[in-house]
Amino acid sequence: MADKPLLFIDIDGVISLFSFALDARPPGRFVTIEGMPHFLSASAGENLLELAKCFEPVWCSGWEERAEEHLPHLLGLPGGWPHLSFDRSPGRANAHWKLGAIDAHAGHRPLAWVDDAFNQACWDWAAARPAATRLVATEPAVGLGGEQVQRLTRWARELACL
């Protein structure tokens, strides 16, 4: 799979939606995971399966190993995706807490990262990476949508042609 770019996937605000009005709830369903309610996007599983055709998926969430424990059967995913573990103290002023783990896992490989909480350090890091890097910001009430999936798929295919 090393020929595919990596896809780092956050969960809250990407797959597990929040901040929507209850009377304007997006398509999806409530589930309880380890005693916590989550509203899973109806299209999350299908979108991730589509992206897995062009990317090597990696869970990139504070859920860490719990992502793989719970989400494959809830979303109809094959399972076996790795997860990142994080040092919550990045050690650099204004650095995002996920950057160190992403760097360590990705090395010099191309990557896309889908998250709802990028800060300026993320954008600066992405611009400075020598490998192709794409950040995809989501709205927590909407999550990862079909248009974003199409853009990511096109980007991965373009990389394969370079």
Can you give a write-up of this model?
It is a single chain. The chain has helices at residues 44-51, 65-75, 99-106, 120-128, 146-161, and strands at residues 6-9, 16-17, 28-33, 36-41, 56-59, 111-115, 133-137. Strand 3 (28-33) and strand 4 form a beta hairpin. The relative contact order is 0.22. A four-stranded parallel sheet has the order 5-1-6-7. A three-stranded antiparallel sheet has the order 2-4-3, with no helix packed on it. It starts with 5 loop residues before the first strand and ends with a helix. Helix 1 (44-51) runs parallel beside helix 5. The mean pLDDT is 94. The radius of gyration is 15 Å and the shape is globular. The chain has 162 residues and is of the alpha/beta class.
Query: What fraction of the residues are assigned to beta strands by DSSP?
Result: 15-25%
Rg (CA only) = 15 Å
How do the SSEs run, as a string of H and E? EEEEHEHHEHEH
* Secondary structure: helix percent: 25-40%
Distance between the termini: 17 Å
- List unreliable stretches of 5+ residues: none
Average predicted confidence as pLDDT: 94
The backbone outline, from C-alpha atoms, is globular
SSE-based structural type: alpha/beta
Count of DSSP-assigned helices: 5
**Biggest sheet, spatial arrangement of strands:** 5-1-6-7
List how many beta strands DSSP finds.
7
Mind summarizing the main beta sheet?
4 strands, parallel
What order do the helices and strands come in, and which of them pair?
Elements: E1 6-9, E2 16-17, E3 28-33, E4 36-41, H1 44-51, E5 56-59, H2 65-75, H3 99-106, E6 111-115, H4 120-128, E7 133-137, H5 146-161
Helix pairs in contact: 1-5
